[in-house]
Structures
1.
Amino acid sequence: MVDRVASLEKLVHELSQLPGIGPKTAQRLAYFILRSSKEYAHDLQEAIHDVKTKVKECPQCYSYTEDELCHYCSDLHRQNDLICVVEDPSDISRLESSQVFRGRYHVLHGAISPLDGITPQDLKIQALINRIEESRSTPTPITEVILALDADLEGDTTVLYLAKILGQINIKVTRIAHGVPIGGDIDYIDHRTLGRALENRIEL
Amino acid sequence: MVDRVASLEKLVHELSQLPGIGPKTAQRLAYFILRSSKEYAHDLQEAIHDVKTKVKECPQCYSYTEDELCHYCSDLHRQNDLICVVEDPSDISRLESSQVFRGRYHVLHGAISPLDGITPQDLKIQALINRIEESRSTPTPITEVILALDADLEGDTTVLYLAKILGQINIKVTRIAHGVPIGGDIDYIDHRTLGRALENRIEL
């Protein structure tokens, strides 16, 4: 589908670069923006600009922030001895919504993936080790590292690597449980998840 | 889900105003934009800006254009005597993709909808009548008006209204056929479509 209007076609093209946005959706969005108020179009442009200029990585946990330290690192009411390792900054808000974890976070910015040429050196792993060791000269040293990585090949590879490397600086390493989702119907759970759920069975 | 980063949350908010984009999708898009290249973010902002500043309505058919006349009105190789009436500019590219119609277009910018307070005066209907009558003093007057409006209540209402009003200036008015879609399985077609398909049956 072509709109025969250069700037409309350009906007459709740019929007269709976004993940999960096909040409048809991009066209619908472009027409919406074209019909929208000057204010909305302006706010949208400004929001894109601000995100690219104001947001940077937190120097301590490598999640995103606009300030010196991120919201979680600067929060005085969180436990300093517990640190949860995630692949991406967006994982943090998911974990926070569970309202179970009250410790600190550390973002690796990816997972080990030989196929994509992503090695441990490309991830914030050394920074994690430094953070643990530096914490040992503080009143509340880090005592446990919880790995909350994706349950895929890259996540598993990274978990194995971190377990080995963190074992060397003797610190307790745990991994979040994988199993049948809450409300999940056994009939519809894949065999690998069921296998994991059986291995990780808990005595009642 | 909150990201605890003001400008990220603002972008998520703005993106979730777009049609069919929920908060979760908006968050995924916002993170993609945050991680994307400076160039992409710049091009996206520019595309939004250009669409709002450069695109205007064609003074003849009311579709969108950046030039004096739109692509279809300025095309010398199209029939002047055939005019196809659509609700929205985006409908034109759909019809063009069928490669069946080679006449001109006229965009109403909506359909009659008493519930939404949209009356004939809110649509480009008088402009259509003027266009037909003015064409009569040209070598190629408009001889047929094809109505390609949505097959919903508003579309049907508008078709009835246009048939009446255009009848008064005696011009041939036709409506695109509604029926079973090509490749459609009778089992899965709703009864109203089947009813229409039966009414509009064609002798072989």
2.
Amino acid sequence: MRTKAIQFLSLIGLIVFSNTNIQAQKNAKEPLMIAEQGSFAVGGTVLKSPGTFNPQKPTAEGQTFRGDHAYVFYQIPVKARKYPLVMWHGIGQFSKTWETTPDGREGFQNIFLRRNFPVYIMDQPRRGNAGRSTVASTIEPTPDEQNWFNVFRVGMWPKYYEGVQFAKDSATLNQYFRSMTPNIGTIDIKVNVDAASALFKKIGAGVLVTHSHSGGMGWLTAIKNQNVKGIVSYEPGSGFVFPEGELPKPIASSAGALEASSVSKEDFIKLTNIPIIIYYGDNIPEKYSENSGADGWRARLQMARLWRDAVNKYGGDVTVVHLPEIGLKGNTHFPFSDLNNIQVADLMSQWLKAKKLD
Amino acid sequence: MRTKAIQFLSLIGLIVFSNTNIQAQKNAKEPLMIAEQGSFAVGGTVLKSPGTFNPQKPTAEGQTFRGDHAYVFYQIPVKARKYPLVMWHGIGQFSKTWETTPDGREGFQNIFLRRNFPVYIMDQPRRGNAGRSTVASTIEPTPDEQNWFNVFRVGMWPKYYEGVQFAKDSATLNQYFRSMTPNIGTIDIKVNVDAASALFKKIGAGVLVTHSHSGGMGWLTAIKNQNVKGIVSYEPGSGFVFPEGELPKPIASSAGALEASSVSKEDFIKLTNIPIIIYYGDNIPEKYSENSGADGWRARLQMARLWRDAVNKYGGDVTVVHLPEIGLKGNTHFPFSDLNNIQVADLMSQWLKAKKLD
């Protein structure tokens, strides 16, 4: 009798085990179950021309112009987790940052939808689908791709870094360079932060995921809006804010000096209320290097550590992770779309879980 | 015995019937089952600056610039139908045209995903997320919204048309106006048609869904690429192509004269190989009107009918539907996002079915 019971239990065990395996294998190809998806504009301002609108001979007179809003595309999966992820691109980029990778794999948009997070992807004001700018601009097609190849640490043009987590075929490079789009008008930090804050006002509590140039604007968004419950920042590039009177010296690099900026002590303290994690990739020189594309990141990583120490000194919870130090090698400026982006996403998932943000 | 059998069958019948009802009611709220989704750039060109790239002091010298591609976001539902729908925005617009409606309902993107069509939404070169333009441009924020309100036939600013299929709250109007984004550089018909054709080369056979300004470019795309198996065109605004020597006279309107353009007889004949349907909405004057916003559409509807007759004369299959004539009243220039857009989608579904394109 007992023997039979044991045989029976083992059988159950086998079934469960094999099912688990099948799940693991199928996972990447399972359909995305989207409970809701859509898009909207948020924030922004309205210009008005004096005079009276003449419908027969329309001029600007008496007409309005809405601009400087952010554009957001969102997807909410079934069985959604509590906090949505708001993903904010970096310099010269737009929503594509988080979508299909240059070599055609799934980016953070799909990866975190599969992990049941609502995903909101933002085009900041005057960028991509949020192109209606309240300021005039002239845009020149200026060849710049070889420089981005270096600055984004894919390699030293035309050489790829050894072991870089980036596919080396020309189709990938073509998609990579076409993932950029110009700013329509000057980049206005306040305009961008206001729009990001308006988004958090609309959707409520969530986690902000920033990249590069949006890193600094992310700190300001969290200061402005308490609905930002945590920040995951990939390679923040500038805008490290310190309390007035406590700014570190500029950090020299062959890409130029990196300066910190200041906020009031009162505002700075707000950054101690939420968990923040910062990730940097590989191929960042340890000492001053004439490779200005890479050397700028040495300065930024150094500044990020000073900033971590400053926030934590006041009781904050900031972690800086230099990926090679924990065994993830070859990451570029875009770890979330690199060849090992599943591992990069796993690190983020573990942190969100540890901070009870999932 | 027989009685019991009959009772049993009736019972089955009842169950099936009630299930069908529940399905019908739940449908709008069922999750979208997405087998695959992503984005990519397609088409475009590459500029190269002479000289040698200097990584230390980077200038344009020796660098490249990729631009004039289209950007595409696609979703393929489970149990997908044979032909994907490629949706192409109109003047001043971008992918938003097909996404969430200004009043927050589902647009054609979701509606046709629910009907199991793969949906590819395109931003044409130099627009929205495809902003990397190979030509320079200066963009001025020019107040223009009251004029668009009239031209898009929402009403005669500030009055809405009686019975217009457009929500009258200010939040809707705000989203509506923020759904526009400027062109970055001149609108280049050939550049746009080349990119659209490159998309059909990549994805294979499909159905093109155009709006307004993309209408004319849609005919040219079908002439260029045989993978366009049918066209659904909402309110095509210009670019009606006729065989050389067979152009109709320009049609006068208070918005200016509408002229046809010409293609070779050989190219024109290609338009007779696919089914094409054209829809126009309501509030288009029947005779010359001083309301130039609306009167332009009288000329375009008239030109569309001349074009239909020309294509059909050579054995084509073009249908022009003036929605009020079949009982759909109050539609604006954007029937696919109007309040009755489900009915508008039903008409499209019926046509696709009739033409064996579903």
3.
Amino acid sequence: MQFVFSFDYPHEIAPMNLKHLLGGKGANLAEMTSVLELPVPHGFTISTDACRAYIDGGWPDGLTVEVDRALTELEERMGKRLGDPGDPLLVSVRSGAQFSMPGMMDTVLNLGLNDVSVEGLAAQTDDPRFAYDSYRRFIAMYARIVQGIDSMEFDRLLDAAKELAGVDSDGDIPAELLRYLVGAYKELVASETGQPFPQDPKVQIRGAIEAVFGSWNGPRAIAYREREGIDHRLGTAVNVQAMVFGNRDDNSGTGVGFTRDPATGDQGVYGDFLVNAQGEDVVAGVRMTEPLAELENHFPEVFHQLMEIFERLELHYRDMCDVEFTVEQGKLWMLQTRVGKRTGMAALRMAVAMTTDAGIKLSKEEALLRISPDHLDQMLHPQFATTKFEVLTTGLGASPGAAVGKVYFTSEAAVLAHERGEDVILVRKETSPDDVHGMLASNGVLTSRGGLVSHAAVVARGWGKPAVVGADQLIFEGGGVRVGDNLIREGDEISIDGTTGTVTLGRLPLEVAEPPEELDLLLQWADELSAGHMSVRANADSGPDAEVARRFGAKGIGLCRTEHMFLAEDRLPIVRRMILADTPADEEQALEELRVAQRQDFLQILRAMDGLPVTVRLLDPPLHEFLPDIEALLIKESNGTLTKEDEKLLEAAKTWREFNPMLGVRGVRLGVLKPGLYTMQVRALLEAAMELKRAGGDPHVEVMIPLTISKPELAYAHAWVEEALAELGADDGLDVLFGTMIETPRAALLAMEIAEVAEFFSFGTNDLTQLTYGFSRDDVEGKLMPIYLAQGLLPSNPFKVVDEEAVIELVNIAAKRGRSARPDIKLGVCGEHGGDPESIASFVKIGLDYVSCSPYRVPIARLAVAQSLVREG
Amino acid sequence: MQFVFSFDYPHEIAPMNLKHLLGGKGANLAEMTSVLELPVPHGFTISTDACRAYIDGGWPDGLTVEVDRALTELEERMGKRLGDPGDPLLVSVRSGAQFSMPGMMDTVLNLGLNDVSVEGLAAQTDDPRFAYDSYRRFIAMYARIVQGIDSMEFDRLLDAAKELAGVDSDGDIPAELLRYLVGAYKELVASETGQPFPQDPKVQIRGAIEAVFGSWNGPRAIAYREREGIDHRLGTAVNVQAMVFGNRDDNSGTGVGFTRDPATGDQGVYGDFLVNAQGEDVVAGVRMTEPLAELENHFPEVFHQLMEIFERLELHYRDMCDVEFTVEQGKLWMLQTRVGKRTGMAALRMAVAMTTDAGIKLSKEEALLRISPDHLDQMLHPQFATTKFEVLTTGLGASPGAAVGKVYFTSEAAVLAHERGEDVILVRKETSPDDVHGMLASNGVLTSRGGLVSHAAVVARGWGKPAVVGADQLIFEGGGVRVGDNLIREGDEISIDGTTGTVTLGRLPLEVAEPPEELDLLLQWADELSAGHMSVRANADSGPDAEVARRFGAKGIGLCRTEHMFLAEDRLPIVRRMILADTPADEEQALEELRVAQRQDFLQILRAMDGLPVTVRLLDPPLHEFLPDIEALLIKESNGTLTKEDEKLLEAAKTWREFNPMLGVRGVRLGVLKPGLYTMQVRALLEAAMELKRAGGDPHVEVMIPLTISKPELAYAHAWVEEALAELGADDGLDVLFGTMIETPRAALLAMEIAEVAEFFSFGTNDLTQLTYGFSRDDVEGKLMPIYLAQGLLPSNPFKVVDEEAVIELVNIAAKRGRSARPDIKLGVCGEHGGDPESIASFVKIGLDYVSCSPYRVPIARLAVAQSLVREG
């Protein structure tokens, strides 16, 4: 196996496609050198194969020979020799993995300097100060990175030298003193390592290569890969390259540039440069940079050469590139290029523009792959307009977007403040149905308890309202909230970011760019590609939600949760009357009132989705969710302050409380226990559909039963629909499908039987995940998940990305068995995985018919479906 | 298809094996007639095929012709004709299904009587009173059963006749008046049906046959089949048989008999008879019966004939039989025989005796199949010694056996009463760890909340202590408990039956027969048969439990739950100190104390099971189970009565409380979150094993991790064992296996990966069922399950009998995948299904290596394993 490849090695395929072998940096250096023939300082890449071999079994056989041969070749090409006392060759050793890991891994510059060659450098540059300053920097860098010596020691010596010289800036230390400093550095190395500082450039290079290999498994790099989901087995490549010096004189310089504006996608000249400087100086912000356009004034020829290179890069990479370049004594050197990072807006606008660009001619498929879900997220939600603030605390980002407002601790106060015209952030330990009107009145919600499916999280996401939940550092005390030393009182302003989970004091500026007009076009392309494969529906529980969903391009409603209709301020008392009813007549009366109210709700939703399918899930949550908190009632009881009403509520709360509500009397089980409830809902829905149809509309109703575990249970529920249809005389062509959620492992395994009754399945992958893992999301996501992910006990959070192993196997089994019983069965996913691009890719593979997600995720899901199909080929 | 078979029809196989076709009664009548050639009144059977055809599509084509032909044949054989005015043939029409359903279905006697033949009967018997009394009974019976007329009307007329005659007894009504009564009965029928009472015997018979068919789907019959798990599709056969009259004169009589004592299994003459009586009189208990042995004095010839028949029946059926017989004018007629019901004791003793009986020569396999799990249950637990009591209320039978004692409502009071020497029944809403010492001091436990895996149920079963849980009619009020109008106060005596869930006031006598010596022999045969297939272990958490288990024949411990060690009165404070620890040092100190204590526990258990494997499950329940009830603390808080200690406990209770504890931080998750806890347990266990080994013992330790969901998680846990072994220098041949419970669907699906780390799997089918169904047993078993079973939404309670569909599929998948990764992986089941015979049969099919159950179930499981293997062939 060959480990070392010079930048102009004749690979059989374009080196830009060899990132797995050469790393990103190495691949692009080779591409620029051998394909584009741009001015790149010569060098070579040691492959990721070598790194993996090194990690598994130490320095690989034959690698020394290959590196030596490559160094000799490099010396020949550059006409310089390593360690040469006259004109030494200096090299950089840089890591470069397949995926960019900025700042995570190590680089050593100026290798080749030693006691002899430093003099050569001084002679060549006629600048001993520069030469010795380079040498001292090299020693300190090498000692830190390769030899693991604490850099504080070197800083201490440096400070001493400045003190001796009476100067403040490193650059003002005279050459004479730098010579001593180099000596002191070398002694420090010798005393720490027991060995003199290596003088042999080859030994230096070997050390640096090993350090780069080793940095792959440094704790920062591992943590970064965990976060980004990068495979730990990839390893890094190492690039050894001849040094060029942008800081040689005023005819030199260095800069970075972008072929288009990475913020907006506009064409033009974007970037920064510095005269007489090295790359680090541009990034570090020590000196004030000049806009790249100014380069034309300093070095007109170099500027035009660079512009020409920009054009060639874009045509070649068919994308926006960023570059690093250095000018050494008037000559332009390209040090790096890559496809550049960009904002969502820029990504979108460039992708569309490049499909019409005569040179680049992106296909629609390519354009679609250029936009990431994060890009869309940025465009669709408000964000903090600044990054300059102090984080107060962090919770779970439960509903994306940022919000600012005054803090209120009760829903009543929130509503009053909202009525006064204030921006409100509702801050609660957790929310309950009693808080719904307070949440509605708020710009954002912050809770100290609960996970990503807590009441606060689910309700907020449904409304697209920013929410941070489970911020467990918040301590409620004395009518306020304490976080460490900070006390937040009612009326104080805070800002929350529901995308990142960040909370900060005070009012930060927010911004949300209007999505550019290119968005509609791109999503139209996506839909064209997805047609006949998978469509995207929305989870929407009200007419207004349904309208938003339709505006975002939803092709129907995949999940209409009827419980949210029960929680409205004017409904909850009726629901409680139903639960508390002493007689069947009282219960019937309450149900009747609910039926009238729900029929109106359904009518609004069906109208908003006229012509498109609407899947209505019958009541799912356990009844105690509609009752007040039992603990508060018990405390009242012990205080003797229960009212008559409270007494009844307490009795009901005791009757309906459960040890494990997730696994208790909910879903269709509630329908079996209280059949009147479900039949009422079915009637309300079908009546609404009939009304719309009579008014000339085109309703498509899908009745969905939650939490099914057996075919007889579903057949039992089916009878309710049949009866209601018969009662209403609604068999005159009303389009009604009957189906079930598949959210218990049993339902998945018995899908063949269940499909004999169900005309569609909607996979509730959230509950399916909870049951497959034995995870209560509320309980494990905050406490346990971070440890499990950090320790590698799970590959990813299965509530964010659907579990490819067990959960997807169950979905796949259910899909196959369901289809074997009913070939035309409609299969979908409702639940949060339906809005997650990685999960969508899994569902596309299984060939499901639709995914359904919150209205605000619909554009992302539309994109993700198309991307998955393109990637599947 | 032939529907009608005379009793001597030449079937190709022995009619006794045709119960599915002829029903139990018909098959045995045919067997007695055609094979044994016993004196059986002639007749024929209408098959279950006819019944099924009738239920599906009404009276089957051709059935009338077949019945008519059979009736003609019957007339010829008996030399009598239906409706004959001289000497009429009378017949009975009786139901007889494949499985006995006593009292559930209909019988009509004396068919063939009409206005003409009644005179013939009077002439033949020279007893007009008898003839008209028979006719009046026939009309009333027919009217009730076939025509659905309320029998109250007939009773009213009968009372009038007695009043007119001035007599008290039906039998004293003179013939003349009976003639008028018959007339009145017929008029009643005519006015109710609009038709005269049918005079044509064939019409009468057709009506009776249809009534029997119809009674198969009567509500009582359906309910019975639900309870007994009998297939609703089987249908019943109908037997039409010539009547004989045991009530003809004093040379006649009727009786029932058993070929051995059904209570003890002893050989001898058992049964009852009555002179001049009909079968009903024996059963109804109107007249005092005589012991069967007395028959010899009345009818010596008949007696010896009967004894000879008994011998032939036993040899033929190779089992104890019961019979019904009638003597008509000195001639013996056999009316029915079947393999008789028996007590557990009798079943066991007869099975063993019949293997050595030279004539019967049962094989060991046959003998094993003769004993049902219920038989063993009867023998192993105390029962109420009477059936004469009034049921106060019923809950879930959570732990079998009966107990009596005085009621105490707190554990403290229970302990004090126990110390005074009283028998105690602890009555609580539900129990918690704080109640363990109170439970220990009680003879039985009764709770008003919770299901079969509630704290009370699990702890009581573990100790073999009777318990009734979830008796939700109990209302706690004013220091007592109310059930309807009854108030139970502290110190009142009650009796509970944890097998049936029955609760009654007062002290019932209890009995438990010492298991007969034959038990050991039989179970030894069972073990011989099971060797090399499946062994039975016990769930035992302490040395004494382990000793009991070993005495019951357990081949090791399949589940030692370490949490019960944490709940002992002297341990709980240490556990709480660990949870509340402010500093790592405090926590370590508490863990250290627990380690010392647990080592002792483990040593006792390993000693009791010396030479046999002991599977120890590391701590499973969530930590809040070791803390006091949070609601009580919250109430104290609101009252301002929290102590310092309470405050800390409240804080901890808040930290560790969970929305769904079943799905929260428990099992290995706890180990990941608090590694010190698990490593402490592993160390304590391995130290105990080393100590036993050093003392010359032979410990076999199996460390079991609960609730695994992924291979890396299990590997993480494995490291604790490796470390502990290394620390203790315990690699000198200590036999330690490492494995996991498979109780999440994910673990089942990923068994291939998990088996790379696990050397054994133990299926936790209780949790696996909860997760597969999305059922919290505590929440659904009391409230929902009865409805689900009654409505047929589930075939059976999946917590009692393992779900053959989904759960067994997961076990099967896991077994296959586990073996594919590790062919010699040991596979077992711990959890209650491991003691359920039906479930054991499923596990035997999959080829698991062992089941583990509570010590008191071990004999039943040993039997069930052998029976399954015999049945599998």
